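ok so i was messing around last nite and threw this chain in just to see what happens. nothing serious, just curious
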Amino acid sequence: MKIIKHPLKLYASAKAVITLFLRLPGNDRVHNVVRRLENLNEKDIEEELENVMLEFSGRHRHIKEIFLNHFNKIQIQYNSDLSHFTVQKKLLIGSFFTKEYSFQAAALFNPSIVPHPDQQGLNPGEKRFIMSLRATGEGHISSIVFRTGTFDHYGHINLDAPTGFFRSLHKNEAAIYYKKDIQKSTETNQGFDIKLLDKLPISFTASEAKSVLKAIPNPGQSVLDSIRIVEELLDMNYELEDSSFLPISEKVIFPIAKGEGMGMEDVRLVKFEDEGRVCYYGTYTAYDGKQIKTQLIETVDFNIFKIRSLFGSAINDKGMALFPEKVNGQFVMISRQGGENINIMFSDDLYSWKSYQVLMEPLFSWELLQLGNCGSPIKTEKGWLLLTHGVGAMRKYVISAILLDLNNPIRIIGRMNKPFIEADESEREGYVPNVVYTCGFMHHGDSIIIPYAISDSATGFMTVSLEDLLNEIEII
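result:
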């Protein structure tokens, strides 16, 4: 089998920075800084603001807008009307509560890839793609970033040049929640006081719900526990503001919710089609420093992103990958409960997963420690092609493949008896040595394009003939 590893590589860069709001501990610190800035004369304010603009306006688009947004946050925290401040003073205060964060200083890895929703203006035989990547920066916090490019009939990969600007996407505070969705999400929470939801209207914003819950007089412990559950749901289920004004390579989905404060890890993108409707989903692992949760990104155009929680008794591990279409009227998900087997789940509800079955157990020496998926499967004439990762001696990760029955994907109809991707000598060193890993691959013509992580540090690209790959899988 001919495998082409392309020279193209993506590396982490400390030059890739976003702006974040600078949080100081305690209101006294905020008050003190504002008071000191308030006492500056207008000449000092203008000179300092000019220096800030000269140094940072070339590193961030719309930096004045960022400063004013951060000033407004401070005004709320300061709990005082500062509207009498001059625009220059507001901008300067906003700049003091702004910091740069190098979101990919440590690593840029674990890619996933899907066809771009816009396939216009291409040469014959070309396909445009969107690739997600896990970017890891200071404090090992992971965020989601994107790159675009084209893949031609001959297997050549061309990445679009990034602009060099990046922006963290903001939560849409006006997003509407529905009581019926909250009720469905709390069904598996034992002890939840369902009567609490009677206090909420049919639809509401997050701030409206919090105001209603905060106004409940003399809540007992049961009600307080139930309020906490609702607040967690509001925190972890949100929508990001429309980012259609930004090139996709500038968009950074940085952790906003408390439950993902230490990272949004390993997005597995899939183009999902159902009765003519197309939506892009991405399962990922949210990590708060102690616990993990499986989350789902939803978008139709990569401009508006909705973040949703998956729930149910089967949602208790990471590494889940959704099939690109329903099978026999049900959603299907590859999973890895227990950490070592590849499992499969079926559900009538995209968000609720109540049971799973073991699909495949470790068999060969190179996968005896652990098995997992490498993203969503693709549909071929011979069956569902699923790339798998196996972990063997010295915690070495490799990539192999299996085939699942098209109509009954619980049945493995073919299994490769060896890995076809492993780290070569130039790829063994990195943040986590001896690892090759991918969160998704794409089919175009007779080629499979596989972006893959190199030792949890960088990202490479390889292509292989679909026919050759299928021929390497032994039919069972």
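not much to say yet. The longest strand covers residues 263-274.
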